[in-house]
Specification:
elongated, binds calcium ion, Phosphatase 2c, domain 1, 35% helix
Length: 414
């Protein structure tokens, strides 16, 4: 059976990061996303090295199992290349990369995965994640320590347990094969998509946008609309759609940028082995993004630290809340005291009266009361004065209010 594949790869630096450490590749039968990271140096170097190494196995395979073996050894080769690069360039120590890849072989796919980039399958309108994140929080979820819900906002949600890099010479890579059916749509993406755009929105776009390129663009757009705090890379692979002519392989992200070797940072003898590498020793650290905890004690320690932090946060919130309540109460008291230093002249029970407070009320709460009621009937005032009193006359002080009352008394007795 002749099958055709249409695929697209799109990568964007996002709205916050200054450089793109993601790489993506859509080839003839191989598709992948790599999300690089580095404490003191080049995550972009790491994802580019891994992507360019794994790209070399983009060809036809007799069976999916053969492709699976090829992926496994290409991942390990990329890991070795990263270690070798760090050995020659210690300023790159700590660099690493996720890689999620699939190879299409007739009615099957071979998959390989390490890190927290993700592979999803859209089949019959339903989107399912087929990879498991190799993250600290996923391990906490798996061991029942936190819920899936808590994992979404956990402060350590970006900490990776496994990556390709210089830490482990034989990292544990998930590889397997799966059936694929006509009409299947595969998505490979970095956490700049899956960690930012809701699952249902991703599913909706994939289900409703016809062309893989348009769908990939829409997904990246959705991440940008949500603020795109991270690099975002999307590869969409459609199975069994008519191809628009032969499809050229597409490389995106840092692996697509031409890299030049920086002579100053190379030992002369190894320079020939790394002719296209640009190093970034001056790039500021972005904080720890991956580690290799060796024992459960270490995990427990981290969990305890998180709990301590949560308790501190709660205490801070409680204190802030109390302070706010006190401030509001104080403002209310001061405000009320101010109103009670004001006086005005008005009408009460048909007589002229001096009121303490202000005419306005605060909802059902009146901010004034009768201070003294005179025996001057409002009816006996002139029409003009009656109207004034009924509408209330502001006084600048209690003495002023008494002066106004005397004036009215004189006028009414005339
Ligand atoms: Ca990322």
């Amino acid at each position: 059976m002749v099958t055709s594949i249409r695929a697209a790869a799109v990568s964007h630096v996002g709205k916050v990061r200054s450089n793109n450490q993601d790489s993506g590749y859509a080839g003839s039968s191989l598709f992948l996303v790599a999300d690089g990271m580095g404490g003191h140096a080049g995550g972009d170097v790491a994802s580019a090295i891994a992507t360019n190494r794994i790209k070399e196995i983009d060809h036809d395979y007799p069976t999916a199992e053969d492709a699976q073996v090829a992926l496994q050894s290409a991942f390990l080769a990329a890991n070795g290349l990263l270690s070798e690069t760090v050995f020659e360039h210690p300023e790159l120590t700590g660099m690493g990369t996720t890689v999620s890849a699939l190879i299409r072989v007739d009615g099957k796919v071979a998959l390989a995965h390490i890190g927290d980039s993700r592979i999803y399958l859209l089949r019959d309108g339903a989107l399912k994640q087929v990879t498991t994140d190799h993250t600290f929080v996923q391990r906490l979820v798996d061991t029942g320590r936190i819920t899936e819900e808590e994992a979404l906002t956990h402060p350590r949600r970006s900490v990776l347990m496994r990556v390709l890099g210089d830490v482990d010479s034989s990292p544990e890579i998930d590889t397997w094969t799966a059936e694929t059916l006509p009409g299947d749509r595969w998505l490979i993406c970095s956490d700049g998509l899956s960690g930012v755009v809701k699952h249902d929105l991703i599913a909706g776009i994939l289900a409703n946008v016809e062309s893989p390129k348009a769908a990939a663009d829409r997904l990246v757009r959705a991440s940008l609309d949500a603020g795109a705090p991270d690099n975002v890379t999307v590869v969409v692979v459609d199975i069994d759609r008519p191809a628009d002519g032969a499809q050229e392989p597409v490389t995106v992200g840092s692996a697509a940028a031409p890299m030049q070797f920086d002579q100053e940072h190379a030992s002369h003898t190894r320079a020939l082995r790394l002719p296209t590498l640009r190093l970034h020793p001056a790039r500021p650290a972005t904080g720890p993004t991956h580690f290799e905890p060796q024992t459960d004690d270490y995990l427990d320690e981290l969990i305890e630290e998180d709990q301590r932090r949560a308790r501190r946060r709660k205490l801070t919130w409680t204190l802030s809340g109390l302070l706010l309540v006190v401030a509001i109460a104080l403002a209310a008291i001061l405000g009320y005291e101010w109103t009670q230093s004001r006086y005005y002249v008005g009408e009460s029970d048909g007589r002229v009266a001096v009121f303490q407070g202000v005419q306005q009320s605060l909802g059902p709460i009146s901010l004034s009361h009768v201070y003294t009621r005179t025996d001057i009937p409002v009816d006996e005032l002139s029409a003009y004065e009656r109207q004034q009193v009924e509408g209330t006359i502001n006084a600048s002080s209690l003495d002023d209010a008494r002066r106004i009352v005397r004036q009215l008394a004189d006028d009414s007795s005339d």
